[in-house]
Write a structure and sequence with these properties.
Largest sheet: none
Number of helices: 4
Strand content: under 5%
Structural class: mainly alpha
Shape: elongated
Radius of gyration: 16 Å
Number of domains: 1
Number of strands: 0
């Protein structure tokens, strides 16, 4: 299962990198600034998949989730920073970066909450 999750993570990471660096790509949608919602969801999923891989410990352990969130935050900064390269015809945006980081920490918080709930259910009263 871990091997399959890791394959899914790396395929998603590759797809996300391609999408965030595709020259002049624009995200349009039914709401204003749809791209911010896309940033939030994409980087939240990136963090959740990374945590699920268990690279930093047991997948649903607090240390693994927190380390994965820290790694995802660093990656979001790196990814957004690369978009400032003029040849990509993209732009760095503080609002985009904030949405990336918010997505990472919201999903990581939900994983931590899931960990607590699972632990309480597993512990006999």
């Amino acid at each position: 299962m871990t091997r399959a999750l890791r394959a899914v993570f790396w395929l998603f990471a590759l797809a996300l990198f391609a999408a965030t660096h595709w020259p002049a790509l624009k995200v349009e949608g039914p709401v204003e600034r749809t791209d911010l919602w896309a940033h939030l969801a994409a980087f939240g999923l990136w963090a959740a998949l990374l945590a699920s891989c268990g690279y930093f410990g047991r997948p649903l352990s607090a240390p693994n989730i927190l380390r994965s969130a820290a790694a995802a935050t660093l990656y979001a900064c790196f990814d957004e920073g690369l978009q400032a390269i003029p040849a990509l015809q993209r732009t760095f945006g503080w609002d985009d970066l904030a949405a990336d980081i918010l997505g990472v920490w919201v999903c990581s918080g939900l994983l931590l909450l899931l960990t607590i709930v699972c632990r309480r259910r597993a512990t006999p009263s």
